Each structure stands twice: as structure tokens, then as C-alpha cells.
Automatic annotation (TrEMBL):
The keyword Transport applies. PROSITE patterns: ABC_TRANSPORTER_1 (PS00211), ABC_TRANSPORTER_2 (PS50893). NCBIfam families: AztA (NF040873). Pfam families: ABC_tran. GO terms for molecular function: ATP binding. Residues 19-223 form the ABC transporter domain. It comes from Nocardioides imazamoxiresistens. SMART domains: AAA (SM00382). This is Zinc ABC transporter ATP-binding protein AztA. Keywords: ATP-binding, Nucleotide-binding, Transport. PANTHER family: IRON TRANSPORT SYSTEM ATP-BINDING PROTEIN HI_0361-RELATED (PTHR42734:SF5), METAL TRANSPORT SYSTEM ATP-BINDING PROTEIN TM_0124-RELATED (PTHR42734).
């Protein structure tokens, strides 16, 4: 946690800031993807990130995740972070089971010997159960439907036991049951005090978020 936050309409103003971006710029070649973005993400809130294609939403998630170093500005966070990519980001050619996918999330909890201890194994089982994919644990990930894949990927994020959960379009193109399961899990995580940042075009996700950050041409338009 960083320090005391500013007030927010739907999150308690005592909630600590889990991640902070200040004056963040990202430039690809000559093309700016983010221009002077300031963001505070607070414990227990769901912050949705919306905006047209190419607005910089995925780039913002990458900066929050620490996987993209900004061209300018600062990122401050000490949070354990889980990043849940779009399901299309996992190639079908990978010979991994659903349990393997979820177990990868638990690796972030491990010490230097990288051995799955009882706590990590329990986190994997809990995440499989919460996302309704325990029965599919031995199946190849590539054999799953789109909704099942997205639930497995979110289970991977849950198994991390993160303070900051970053989601890229988690409900896009899903059947209703899978979309509902994902939105329930997101809300549950926020209820446990996890800060959730969710890039989405889904109007239901945006309506249910505590705050919506709109990006346009790499800039924050409104909050
Ligand atoms: N690795 C990269 N190399 C070059 N340009 C990139 C790279 N990643 C993103 N961009 C460019 O940066 C801009 C912002 O891209 P980004 O993917 O963050 O937008 P987005 O809002 O997530 O879009 P979408 O909704 O289509 O996923 C776009 O102009 C994109 O083409």
C-alpha cells in the first residue's frame, strides 16, 4: 500500500492506494499511446477502463502490471499483482491442462525454491472451484470453450492471491453464464479488499464498476 487516498464516490475514503501512476507517457516510435496519465487505484474498488480502440487501455494495464516501462512519468506500487490477459493471448499449441494454467498463477506466491506448498495448492483448488472449472482441471486448455477459457484464466489470477488484479476484456464475447461468473468473482475480490482494474467495452461491467476511467487518444477524458 502507498498512503492515504483521495476520496472516491463509491469506495470508502479510508481505502489505501494500491497503485499510482503519475504523468505517465508511453510512446511507440513517434506515436504516443499514453500522454500524461494520472491514476490512483484503491483497495477494494473495481476501476473500469473504457475507451475506443487504440485509446491506450491495454498499454495502461501493462504499465500498471509493470510489464511495460513508461517512456516518462512514474509508477508506484508495492502490491502483489495478477494480470489476466484476453483468452486469445494463450496459444492453442501449448500442451497444458486447465490445472496447469491455474497453477501458473500460484507460482507468484512461491519462494526461491519454486515448490508448490500446501498453501499454494489450496489456492489453486479454491480458484478452480470458485470459477466453476474444477471438473475440467485435467482437460487440455485448448479443448475448452471461450467462456471456460476465460474462467480458467481468471482462476489463474485468483490463485496468485494478489492485492492488485488486472483484467483485459474479461467478459467480451462470452456466454451469459460465464460473464456472470466472472463479474461475481470480480466483485467478490473487491469485497476481499483487492483492487481490481478491468479494461472493458461491456456496458454491464462499466455499470457495475465503482469508477470508470475513460481514455481517449492516450489521455484521461473523464472519471
Ligand atoms: N507494441 C506496440 N508497438 C507499437 N504500437 C503499439 C504497441 N502496442 C500498442 N501500440 C499502439 O498504441 C496505441 C494504443 O494501443 P492499446 O492496445 O493500448 O489500445 P487499446 O485501447 O487497448 O485498444 P483496443 O481496444 O483495440 O485493444 C495504438 O495506436 C496501438 O496501435
Amino acid at each position: 500500500m502507498i498512503d492515504a487516498p483521495a476520496a472516491s464516490p463509491r469506495t470508502p475514503d479510508v481505502a489505501p492506494t494500491v497503485a499510482r501512476l503519475r504523468d505517465v507517457h508511453v510512446v511507440f516510435g513517434l506515436r504516443p499511446a499514453l500522454c500524461g496519465v494520472d491514476v490512483d487505484v484503491r483497495a477494494g474498488e473495481v476501476l473500469a477502463v473504457a475507451g475506443p480502440n487504440g485509446a491506450g487501455k491495454s498499454t495502461l494495464l501493462e504499465v500498471l502490471a509493470g510489464t511495460r516501462v513508461p517512456t516518462g512519468g512514474t509508477r508506484s506500487t508495492g502490491a502483489a499483482t495478477a494480470f489476466v490477459p484476453q483468452r486469445a493471448a494463450v496459444p492453442d499449441s501449448l500442451p497444458i491442462t486447465v490445472r496447469d494454467v491455474v497453477t501458473l498463477g500460484a507460482w507468484g506466491r512461491l519462494g526461491p525454491w519454486r515448490r508448490l506448498d500446501a498453501t499454494a495448492r489450496a489456492a489453486v483448488e479454491e480458484a478452480l472451484g470458485r470459477m466453476g472449472v474444477a471438473d475440467l482441471a485435467r482437460k487440455p486448455y485448448a479443448s475448452l470453450s471461450g467462456g471456460q477459457r476465460q474462467r480458467a484464466l481468471l482462476a489463474q489470477g485468483l490463485a496468485r492471491g494478489a492485492d492488485l488484479l488486472l483484467l483485459d476484456e474479461p467478459t467480451t464475447g462470452l456466454d451469459r453464464a460465464s460473464g456472470d461468473a466472472i463479474r461475481v468473482a470480480v466483485r467478490d475480490e473487491a469485497g476481499r479488499g483487492v483492487a481490481v482494474v478491468c479494461v472493458s467495452h461491456d456496458p454491464v461491467v462499466l455499470a457495475e464498476a465503482d469508477r470508470v476511467l475513460h481514455l481517449e487518444d492516450g489521455r484521461v477524458a473523464t472519471r
